[in-house]
Amino acid sequence: MRVLVVCLGNICRSPIGEGLLRHHAAAQNFQLIVDSAGTSGWHQGALPDERSIEVMRQHGHDISDQRSRPLVQGDLHLYDIILAMDSSNLKDILSMGTRSAQTALFVPGENVPDPYYGGHDGFQRVYDMIDTAAKDWITLWKEKENQ
Description:
Elements: E1 2-7, H1 13-27, E2 33-38, H2 50-58, H3 75-78, E3 81-84, H4 87-94, E4 102-105, H5 120-145
Parallel strand pairs: 1-2, 1-3, 3-4
Helix pairs in contact: 1-5, 2-5
């Protein structure tokens, strides 16, 4: 299965989502290809925000090898599932036209707030939201695979 995690700039939320999906997939022995992108290209080539790197490091995860990239048309067909961090990003993905990928919010029924302009506590809150959802997604996908 191929999954793409999308937020606005691909430096705060989606790198955390990518890292946590990768972690939970490995923990549950689930084969997953995961990447992340942003609906804007503002930070193309940049490392994740230092606060994202730090909150992940505090929980034992290293995302310092990730680099920001923009969402492109080809992603809509390359990935099986595209998970958006909020309804605005989801709307931007859907506006790109036809796609074979399923699209959904990363946290079903909720927007993951962008912590960029906030303090460290915002990154911890985002981590907690994404961690729970990432574990749930892997469990769901693994169950579907075993049916």
